[in-house]
Amino acid sequence: MVERLGWTTITFGLMQVLRLANNVVLARLLAPSLFGLMTIVNAIRFGVELLSDIGINQNIVSSEKGHTRDFYDTAWTLQVIRGVILGIICIALAIPFAKFFEQPELAVILPVMSLMFFFGGLAATSNAILQKQINVVRLSLFEFGGLVLTVAIQIGLALYSPSIWALVIGNIVGWAIAFLATYLIIPGMSHRLFIDRDAAKQVLSFGKWIFLSSIILFLAMNFDRFYFAKQISLDRLGVYSIARTLSEMFSQFTARASNMLIFPSIAAWQASGFEVRQRVLRGRRLILLVAALGLGAFVSISDFIIQLLYDDRYLEAGAILPILMVGVWFAVLCTVNDSIMLGTKRPAFPAISSGAKLAFYVVALPLTFWMFGFMTAVLVLSLGEAVRYVVLWAFSRRQHLGFGRDDLALTLVFFGSIAVFREALSLLGLTGGITTLFPILNTLSAAVFGQ
Questions:
Q1: Which DSSP state fits 314?
Q2: How confident is the model at residue 250, as a pLDDT?
Q3: Top-confidence residue, 274 or 289
Q4: What is the mean pLDDT of residues 63-82?
Q5: Interatomic CA distance for residues 432 and 158, integer angstroms
Q6: I need a labelling partner for 225 at 20 to 30 A (CA). Which of 87, 183, 273, 399 fits?
Q7: CA 159 to chain centre
Q8: Is it the case that residue 322 has pLDDT exceeding 90?
Q9: Contact 333, 382 (CB under 8 A)
Q10: Of 326, 321, 335, whose CA–CA distance to 388 is shortest?
Q11: Would you state the pLDDT for residue 109?
């Protein structure tokens, strides 16, 4: 487990450094409004994809028959059908979305982006099979190689034509590379169009909760993108997307480690909730302690990182990023707990907790934006992750899978490390104090106390 976690950490760290470099270079070459437009495009794409998710990969990993030819060929056939349908839906929605967001370019961009669904549908199930085998090394190396090619192509396109098409075509090429890699990552990997009734029934039965969870997860993850797209300028939306992309690097690592290590390991144990808790407690505690300290250190210098890496057009991201990172901490806790729930075949709990987060956003985000403005609305996004955590904890503790005391202590470590690192940097004259990191605190204080 330690060796696999090491591989996951190293390769993912290298991938995130590469993504960060790509993000910084593209930000220098392209206007903020292009990132804003791409934020809308990606939100629509994620929506179309997740609103029909039946958990193909999760089924292969969790099922005792997931490694058999009949099972994964059935899963692949369902995936192909889904990919074709999604591509058609994306094309059909192009003009309506272009009118809704008042962005005519979407009428052309979305049909081109539909290619990604066709690539995704035809992709082999290699990733899921390797995930089931917990073959982290091979999976990580192929993903890293594909990312290197994708980044090189994206930057080349941006140098040649600094327009929205550099981002669009770059994304499509990335998916095409990933599609081809799925047939190379396991030598001799092939599929046939085939439906086994029992396998299909099992996929769809388990997948109904994945489907519901994916719908709720998509809406909860992208409600801010859709809402802000109608309320703020494309330039500001682009700046916001830069901060959001940086913050998501950390939650994506947790999701990757959880999906590749925690979920398949627990699924293979076939143990009760109490037994699972006993077996993961110490390892979970140690990993999250390191995460709390690491995230706290990053948050303490996050505004400085924005100033260092980006030009003046993106400076507001320095105030947005620390706020979003608070939410990332709670998202990390939730992601680990989600994987434990899925491993013990309780996919309903993550769906319910994401639903609570979405309900909070629907009420609180527009109200806060209207009353206090954009920056306070960003704070609501972090509070939503805390709401999600509390609901998930309330359900999981009934199955003897709650880690409330541990998580409370770890959360105090997280916030404490932010304060300690920031004040230490301030004493050295490298940064301002904690209120310069979170200027929103001054705004809220003035609103509450009238000062």
A1: G
A2: 78
A3: 289
A4: 77
A5: 36
A6: 87
A7: 28
A8: yes
A9: no
A10: 335
A11: 92
Residue carrying structure tokens 């993550």: 350
Distance CA 117, CA 103 (A): 22
The Cβ-side half-sphere exposure at 373, using a 13 Å CA radius, reads 6
Cβ-contact 196, 65 below 8 angstroms: no
- Does position 255 have pLDDT exceeding 80, yes or no? no
Q: Which long-range contacts (CB under 8 A, 24 or more apart) does 342-346 make?
A: 342/58, 342/62, 342/263, 342/267, 343/62, 343/262, 343/263, 343/264, 343/265, 343/266, 343/267, 343/269, 343/276, 344/266, 344/271, 344/273, 344/276, 344/399, 344/401, 345/62, 345/206, 345/267, 346/399
DSSP structure string for 258-294:
IIIIIHHHHHHH---HHHHHHHHHHHHHHHHHHHHHH
Alpha carbon separation from 441 to 241, 322, 368, 375, 447 (Å, rounded): 22, 12, 15, 11, 10
Q: Distance (Å, rounded) from C-alpha 47 to C-alpha 41?
A: 10
Rg of the chain, C-alpha, whole Å: 22
φ/ψ of 35, rounded to 5, equals -65, -35
Tokens standing for residue 152: 């090189």
260 pLDDT above the threshold of 70: no
The residues spanned by each domain of the chain are 1-222, 232-444
Q: Which residue has the higher pLDDT, 210 or 187?
A: 187
The residues, ordered by sequence, that sit 6+ positions from 421 with a Cβ below 8 Å of its Cβ are 296, 297, 300, 301
Rounded average pLDDT over 327-334: 90
Neighbouring C-beta atoms of residue 162, cutoff 10 Å? 15
User: Which residues are CB-neighbours of 274 under 8 A, at least 6 positions away?
Assistant: 400
Within the chain, what is the greatest distance between any pair of CA atoms? Answer: 69
Q: Which tokens sit at 248?
A: 């998501």
Instruction: Report the chain's mean pLDDT, rounded to a whole number.
Output: 81
Reduced to 3 states (helix: H, G, I; strand: E, B; else coil), residue 28 is helix
Name the residue among 319, 333, 346 with its Cα closest to residue 436.
319
Q: What tokens were used for 110?
A: 């979305």
Query: Which pLDDT belongs to residue 204?
Result: 66
Separation CA 61–CA 289 (nearest Å): 28
Residue 189, pLDDT score: 75
Q: What are phi and psi of 266, to 5 degrees?
A: -65, -40
Token readout for 148 is: 């290197």
pLDDT at residue number 269: 65
Q: What angle do CA 425, 426, 428 make, to 5 degrees?
A: 65
HSE (CB half, 13 Å, CA atoms) of 353? Answer: 25
